[in-house]
Design a protein that fits this description.
Elements (H helix, E strand, L loop, with lengths): L1 H56 L6 H14 L19 H4 L6 H6 L2 H5 L6 H10 L2 H4 E2 L3 E2 H35 L10 H34 L3 H23 L5 H41 L1
Antiparallel strand pairs: 1-2
Helix pairs in contact: 1-2, 1-8, 1-9, 1-10, 6-10, 8-9
Amino acid sequence: MLVIEMFKNHLIEIMSTVCFVALCLRVVAHRANRKNQAYFNAFAHSVIKHLEEEEAKKESVEDVDVWLENMLNNVKEHLPDRSLRFQKNVNLRAESLTDYTDGKQSVVIAIKQQADALKSPYPPNFQEMADRVLHQDSRWRTILGYVPIDALSRGLDVLPNLFVVCGILGTFVGITISLPLIGAIDINKLSEAGPILNKFVAGIAFSMNTSIAGIVFSILMTLVTALFPLSSIRDDVAKNFERCIEFMWYRIHGNKLSPAEQKMTNSFDKMSTEMARLLTDIRDELKDQKTSDSQRKRGA
């Protein structure tokens, strides 16, 4: 009963605090995702542009490690030195994309770590590779340096429904506490029933207030989720990076055949050679037979 009383006395305050903290985290996470989107998309577009320029020259890739090192260095050197921050305070030091890619946990290092997969003649799972590359960077994984953004996003997405559930729960708790008070009223002493009725009305008011608060907080979180999305931005970045890695793999292998395809091609070549030889033998036999028939006719 003590737990129920504490729940009754502080439920709306707890919901208000959770809603405020969730709104702040949603805005902070959205701003961090916007910066990540600018960083990673600019890098991916620069890589794709460089690959398209190389493809136009029609040069093959001989040493993947050397090519990858040179390509990434070339991309970093030609990245625009521009601010990717969204703050309006010009006194803050702007962090350029070039500086960002030089970190120990940078996307450049992560791509180099995937060299073995890029060397493979079989197409890898580009989506998984893009996820591995992105998750090497702490700014992609977390906000504020330690809050996992994927877990935070899932938690924030369920809050609107959770607020509704808490509102309904508070309603039933208030009714459960209030209804027994009616039984305590002595109809022979109605003049003394005032305090009991006041408690009953307070309990019913709590029930209504929690329902209203739950609905309001749910609507507020839903609106903020629509205005400050997280998943859609991260999906856009992941898709661009997946496309970037796919371009890199096809640039490395070009029109090269895989071992299985090469084996099949060799088999077809052998079959073609054998068929040509058989056709030549058949043609020679038919020619010899025709010559023999002609000689027999002349002899007759």
